[in-house]
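Onboarding guide, step 5: your first structure request.
Type a short instruction followed by the sequence, for example:

Predict the 3D structure of this protein.
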Amino acid sequence: LPPFRRLGLGGATLNAFHHLAVARGAADTSVEDPTPGLQRLREVGDAKRLSSRASFTAAASRTIKAASWKRGELELEPLLPPRALRIEAQREAKIPPLQLAKVWELLLARALSTFLAEPGLAALQRQAADLALETVVKRRIASKFEEGKKTPVKRMHELEGRNFFLWRSWKGTQSNIQIIVELDEEAEEAKEEQMLQLVEERVEYLKAAAASW
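The system replies with structure tokens like these:
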């Protein structure tokens, strides 16, 4: 209801929910079908809890600083939270892996904001640090586009100048049935544009959220 908005009640409710789960020994916490607003509120709350742990703030800071010295395309693995932190987040903070992936982006955005405020940084360092956050966000969002899709073994064939994929049927491992599917380049381009738009919006949100703590 409007009279009760902007009073911190949502965040307080989520905090109470989290503390109750910890007190009762829950394995982790989750919210079924959250609204975008609730999801953002939960992300910020979880990020604040993890930022109170020196292990997470130090790891996010190291990740951004290390990335700032890289040139060219960044490898994903060094940008993700180490295994020890993933275990700590789930066992002690009751944050499941999928939620941690989003919260880690927020922690990186926070570390990025602090890093970019340092004097004397070279332009290439700033660009590389910025790219680190974008790389992590892009990989997570790209994985959502791939969810639920099997990736069969395929061979590329060129027939009269047009590209086709030759797929093996999924109807049993012994089947010799094969299907030819034309590559829809326009659909792929549209999907790529949609994904890049989501990445841009997410990065913009993360930077704004990190700056407002």
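Each response can be followed by summary notes, for example: Strands lie at 154-159, 162-168, 178-182.
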